[in-house]
Write a structure and sequence with these properties.
Elements (H helix, E strand, L loop, with lengths): L1 H10 L1 H5 L2 H20 L3 H24 L5 H14 L2 H4 L7 H16 L15 H14 L10 H18 L2 H21 L4 H23 L9 H17 L1
Helix pairs in contact: 3-4, 8-10, 9-10, 11-12
Amino acid sequence: MLEVMDTLRQKCPWDREQTFTSLRNNTIEEMYELVDAIADENMEGIKEELGDLLLHVVFYSKLGEEVGAFNFGDVANAECDKLIYRHPHVYSDIHASTPDEVMKNWEELKLRKKKRQGGILGGVPRSLPAMVKAYRVGEKAASAGFDWEQKEDVWAKVKEEIAEIEAEMARGDKQRTEEEVGDLFFALINMCRLYGIDPELALEKTNKKFISRFQHMEAEAGDKILSQMNAEELDELWRSAKKAEASA
């Protein structure tokens, strides 16, 4: 892989022109393609997308080597050092017998090592999608002990946020309604965290389910245009789609 990258960097006009910045969006796209393959449980797809991601790691390492900053070996060795440091329950005498204890130690060690001015939440990447960021913020806050005592307690917060949305909508305050909707999303994502549900995966499954049902409706409608059908006809098509899905 390293040899191929060296050759491409020298002989391919496109590869020769790439920079850290120019590759950034492609890397993000490759990451989402891997996530899609994982959601589909497509092992061949996962293998392929992991290869594409590895290519990007090698490419960035090559760029770093060219400016004398780091090479692929430096990247791999630094990660090994980090893993050993953050697993004292494996490589040292620190005790951690549960995943929660491991995560608590992990976050404490990260904070101690990097001494971020942003504190515990300073390590959450700014560019993360909002849903993933909310989940990570909740995880990190929980690692510091800031969490609901019982996971069932989160439901009171969810209900509270729904009531606040209704109140702001009744007042006609769009800005405050938007803020309260954000608070509701945050509470729901924390509910997912507490109950061991991946909110991104859960929503994507619903997206796929809706798309499949809607496409069934379009197929069943035949020559008719959905936007020209009445509510009763659309409801009938929707029920047909759900029935077809259940019998599949």
